[in-house]
Amino acid sequence: MKIEIEHLDQHYGSAQILRDVSLTVDSGECVALLGRNGAGKTTLIKCLVGTLSPTSGRILADGQDITAMRPHLRSRMGFATVPQGREVFRELTVRENILAAARAHGHASDGTIEETVERFPVLPQMWSRSAGQLSGGQQQQLAFARALVTRPSVLLLDEPTEGIQPSIVAAIGDLIASLKGAMTVILVEQYVDFALGLAESAVTMDRGRVSAKIPKAEFDRTVLRTSVSV
Questions:
Q1: For residues 159 and 162, what is the distance between their CA atoms, to the nearest angstrom?
Q2: Whole-angstrom distance between the N-terminal and C-terminal Cα of the chain?
Q3: Angle, nearest 10°, between helix axes 136-148 and 166-179?
Q4: Confidence of residue 1 (pLDDT cuts 50, 70, 90)
Q5: Residue 230 above 60 pLDDT?
Q6: 130 φ, ψ (degrees, to nearest 5)
Q7: What Gene Ontology molecular-function terms does this entry list (predicted)?
Q8: For FRET with 218, which of 116, 136, 150, 159 sits at 20 to 30 Å CA-CA?
Q9: Cα gap 79→153, rounded to integer Å
């Protein structure tokens, strides 16, 4: 699914967070969204998910204006997210978390759950355990499974390596790499080398604006690391 963002502004009260953001992400492209803390990356992801409404501008998905579309309708259209902090249902079991997402998209009994869970060998071992009892890395794998079981066309990832042990970071990198081309991926990530190892292009943000979109052939990791340093 092709995503087009046109002249997007967003405010929290009197504070302007996004400033005239325009960006095109081609269908199947993996884009790393980089920038310092407070640059507006998470706000942009929330506008794409639909949990925040822009003040002005448009968001198009395969040419359809979805700017005013509610989050659950975007989800049915093919948007899925792994949010910062994971946001799994802590009181529900692993099985219930995944089943709830699958049912909402009509995939409870078509083999999608089994196909998805095969990607995460640890989850069947935790099937009846509440999500709140899982480690951070296990919760992140659950968050990915919950997103993928919806069979998305667009996957929005907000800091997927945050607070995760190195072995899980590597597994998440392998997972994202396996998804490239099958869906459009927008990856917000402070770990620059991780992000650039996966992305076809990198978008840098600064104080609510998109400052550049850089193709992989032109990545300068030293410069990009400097652009996201706090």
A1: 6
A2: 33
A3: 10
A4: very high
A5: no
A6: -65, 145
A7: ATP binding; ATP hydrolysis activity; branched-chain amino acid transmembrane transporter activity
A8: 159
A9: 6
**pLDDT at res. 114:** 92
Does the domain spanning 1-78+184-216 belong to CATH 3.40.50.300? yes
Domain ranges of the chain: 1-78+184-216
Closest Cα partner for 136 from 87, 93, 185, 92? 87
Q: What is the pLDDT of residues 198-223, one digit of tens each?
A: 999 999 999 999 998 999 888 876 66
User: Among residues 42, 43, 33, which one has the least CA distance to residue 194?
Assistant: 33
* Residue 34, amino acid: L
Rounded to whole angstroms, the Cα distance separating 205 from 214 reads 12
What SS3 state is found at 104? helix
Give the residue carrying structure tokens 């998440």: 172
